[in-house]
Amino acid sequence: MKVVVADDSRVMRQIVVRTLRQAGYDWWEIEEAEDGADALGKIRASRPDFVLSDWNMPNMTGIDLLRALRAEGDETPFAFVTSEGSPQMREQAEQAGALFLIAKPFTADIFRETIDPFIG
Amino acid sequence: MTATIDWAPVLDTDPLLQISQDLFATMIDAEPGHVHHWVGSRPELVDPRYTWVDVTDEQIVRVVIGTGRETGEAITRALLALPDDAEVTDEDFMDAVGEVANVVCGNVKSLVTHPGTLTIPVVAHAAPPLGDGTVLVDACLSWRGAPLTVALWLLP
């Protein structure tokens, strides 16, 4: 299973990938992207099975990335890992077509409980 | 027209303490119990570094976190799962402590349902000027015995 993890923080990308491994997704083939624009190019090129993205990023935000994908007919399963987890953000994410939103800080248990019903 | 924001949930140091405790327990210490209110007079930060993130809108909310360089390096090593004696580059330091501010600010924004957008974290040797702003909360916390300041500002 190919997965793109997008976050402008290299530290946070490393934490997300490490937490995914701890949550049991150690068989995922993960490609990292450093912002939304980078992720868009990599998604177009590698056609991943799942995208896990930060929201606030330079060049292209996570929500703009999701909207850009859906606008071009790309229905790749997409979810957010972001520091903002307000009901408004969750609603906005859902309306744009995201499967779920995980708020930072997170644990491997939270990843497993949230991701498994959709991707497991 | 100025947006109406309910500041009540954060007008106490406890919400910032709670957010900080959750962040450190889950992503830095892998266990709870290492972040508390600082007891006693507020200490000077040794070789200080400050990191801040704004929520921009008609009212700007700024979360400012202050720590000593050595403490920031320990936080960076923990976030990156590096050994205790690993050298910490400036790039990793700024990225890691910036993410701490980013997570705290995002959680504050969620508490007060501020309609604005988070900025990219800034890291510097000095705190930014407060100017005509107002300090809503100014907490001094202890992480494993080292001081960590967490402040919430409202800027015009």
Overall geometry of chain A comes to: globular
Q: Any idea what the CATH architecture of chain B is?
A: 3-Layer(aba) Sandwich
Q: How many domains in all of chain A?
A: 1
The CATH architecture of chain A can be given as: 3-Layer(aba) Sandwich
**Main beta-sheet strand count, sense and barrel state of chain A:** 5 strands, parallel
Shape of chain B: globular
Order of helices and strands of chain B: HEEEHHEEEE
The end-to-end span of chain A amounts to: 11 Å
Summarize the structure.
Chain A has 120 residues and is an alpha/beta fold. Chain A has five helices and five strands.
What's the helix and strand layout?
The complex is a heterodimer of chains A (120) and B (156).
Chain A: E1 2-6, H1 10-22, E2 29-33, H2 36-46, E3 50-53, H3 62-71, E4 78-82, H4 87-96, E5 101-103, H5 108-119
Parallel strand pairs in A: 1-2, 1-3, 3-4, 4-5
Helix pairs in contact in A: 2-3
Chain B: H1 13-28, E1 35-37, E2 48-56, E3 60-68, H2 69-80, H3 90-112, E4 117-118, E5 122-124, E6 134-143, E7 146-155
Antiparallel strand pairs in B: 1-6, 2-3, 2-4, 2-5, 3-7, 6-7
Please characterize this protein's 3D structure.
The complex is a heterodimer of chains A (120) and B (156). With 120 residues, chain A is of the alpha/beta class. Chain A has a single domain (2-119), classed as 3-Layer(aba) Sandwich (Rossmann fold). Chain A has five helices and five strands; from the N terminus they run βαβαβαβαβα. Chain A is globular and about 35 Å long. The model of chain A has no long low-confidence stretch (mean pLDDT 96). Chain B has 156 residues and is α+β, with helices and mostly antiparallel strands. Chain B has a single domain (34-155), classed as CheC-like (Chemotaxis protein chec), CATH 3.40.1550.10. Helix content of chain B is 33%, strand content 29%. Chain B is built from three helices and seven strands. In chain B, strands 1, 2, 3, 4, 5, 6 and 7 form a seven-stranded antiparallel beta sheet that branches. In chain B, 40% of the residues are buried. The model of chain B has no long low-confidence stretch (mean pLDDT 91). The interface between A and B is medium-sized, with 23 and 27 residues.
